Amino acid sequence: MDNSKKTKVFTAILVCLVIGMAVSLYQIYNLNEELDRKNRNLNNQISSLREEIGSIYGNVDNSLKKQASLLSESEYTIGDFDEQNQTMSVAFSVIPKSITDTMRVFIDVDGEKTELTKNGEEFSGVKDVGLFVQYDAWPVLTIVDGAETKTEILENTDISRLYERVLPQLFADMTGTSHFDDGLVRVEAGFSVENIEKNDSDVKFESFTYIREKNGAVEEKKDITDEVIKADGSYHSRFAQTFEAAVGDEIELYVIAKDSLGYIHKCRVSYWYRESDDEEDTPVISTGSELIYDKNGVLLFGEEM
Asked: C-alpha 131: how far from its chain's center?
């Protein structure tokens, strides 16, 4: 076979191989697409199955709770705010599954027990509940009948944090970068203060103050009331400062707001703690939730850190 024929044969074989490779690549691509599609369908089916199982567990759990409950019905209504006593009225209404003429029913909220009045099958009553009941402090139902006493936690009756229905709320935050260098801490961050007011409440914030402390001593205090008010309750600014900080020093930045009832709201913006002289030592930075004090500085809600 001469060179010309060999070249033609080689070219034909090469073309066939290229075509075969192209067909193979196309088929592989289609197989991958099909596999991806099936994987997506499988993942969607798994997610749906998990949601369905979760829903079944939830329904079974609710059914078991209803079955085990002492009550066939339970309702509550939150009423008016008592400014002097720092409480809100809550009306309770329950119907026990089993009723006798001698039974007595009580509601215990935050350690204070109130007896409900019987009217037919219904037991009802109004209790003044403190504004600052913490999370998970559910009312406890007690049924007393002769020597027998039964109790049940009313987990569907949320009477915690009632102050949120009346008082404005304070949020403050600082996000950005900070570092230590030669006995200093440098902060470059965004600083924000949010004033969340209740449309149906007359209680408003009257003042806002930014405070910086080092080791518990106030080093800077600035009134930012005008800035927050001008920003219509949503104040944002750029924060860039340098503080002196030796090993072991604690620097705390926070905002204090005073409302028209005299409550003092405190929100820690950021906290730095210098642990060593290492230049690469990363500052410990954290923020805190809103704390509420009375006008005498007694903590009413939240946990100091």
From this structure: 19
CA torsion sign, 247 to 191 to 299 to 130? negative
Report phi then psi at 35, rounded to 5: -65, -45
Q: Is the pLDDT of residue 9 over 80?
A: no
Contact 193, 230 (CB under 8 A): no
Whole-structure pTM value: 0.70
β-strands 217-223, 169-181 pairing? unpaired
In the predicted structure, residue 99 carries a pLDDT above the cut 80: yes
Residue-level pLDDT at 257: 94
Which parts of the chain fold into alpha helices (H)? 3-68, 225-230
* Predicted local confidence at residue 175, as pLDDT: 82
- pLDDT of 90 > 70? The answer is yes
Separation CA 116–CA 119 (nearest Å): 10
User: Exposed, middle or buried, 160 (CB in 10 Å: 0-12/13-18/19+)?
Assistant: middle
Chain-centroid distance, C-alpha 69: 29
CA distances from 55 to 68, 165, 221, 270 (A): 20, 31, 52, 40
Two structure tokens written together for 263: 């409550």
In DSSP terms, 251 is beta-bridged to 214, 272
- For residues 48 and 60, the answer to whether their CB atoms sit within 8 Å is no
